[in-house]
Amino acid sequence: MHRNVVISGGGTGIGLAAARVFAAGGDRVLLLGRRGDVLERAAVPGALTYEADLADPGAVRGVAGFVGGEFGAVDVLIHGAEGDGPLEPPAGGDDPLDAVAHSWTVNFRLNLLTAALLTEALRHRLAEPGGRVLFLSSLAAYQGRGEPAYAAAKAGLHPYAHALARELGPHGITVNVVAPGYIEDPGLAGDAPAEDPRTRMTGQTLDGRAGTPGDVAATLHWLASPGAGHITSQIIQVNGGAERGH
């Protein structure tokens, strides 16, 4: 029996890899993103697409209406939308505090607000029991590397997921976070440091390689499976041992 899977940021990187894995298993997939041309190029067999800025409450209401009409219930909700602002207008003026405010506001909006709005808009459609909510965090949330505002915004997903897991657990819905390390994929933004990412980031791993979108997609697929039904309120790291414990 197929499941209904909604994936934000589904046009590139991890979101796209996850979409392909779920679609290959026979699930119905909806890809969300704010760039329609990117969604069109994703070419996931059988997948629906919907262009929306998920930081805009009005646009998210449109998503919720579309999901209700096409899917009804949502079995799996994956939050892959993210970024650190390369598509955003630059901060105006030369005041450094204006630049700080711009960076933190953009990162909060792209990485945390998008996830919160979409979750709250669709939470009443999550399958009961069996629904799955999956957030994508980052190794940066633990190490504070790269853009501090990006790391802080990703870290903000963790307590939100714990609170949701507590609220939705009695309904048979699990909520988890996957925190990838450095993922070698040109479609991703945010984790790559200014210096050579392969040399420095793979040097932290225990297996001596960069991660791939497929590594993370496989983890998301497993967390959405019946076999992971007793796993909730967890942060699963996929980083080759670059960060251990927690």
UniProtKB/TrEMBL annotation:
Keyword Oxidoreductase tagged: yes
Superkingdom assignment: Bacteria
An annotated Gene Ontology molecular function: oxidoreductase activity
The protein's Enzyme Commission number: 1.-.-.-
Domain Ketoreductase: 3-186
Gene3D superfamilies from the UniProt entry: NAD(P)-binding Rossmann-like Domain
Entry-linked PANTHER family: 3-OXOACYL-[ACYL-CARRIER-PROTEIN] REDUCTASE, CHLOROPLASTIC, SHORT-CHAIN DEHYDROGENASES/REDUCTASES FAMILY MEMBER
Family indicated by similarity: Belongs to the short-chain dehydrogenases/reductases (SDR) family.
Protein name: SDR family oxidoreductase
Source organism: Streptomyces edwardsiae
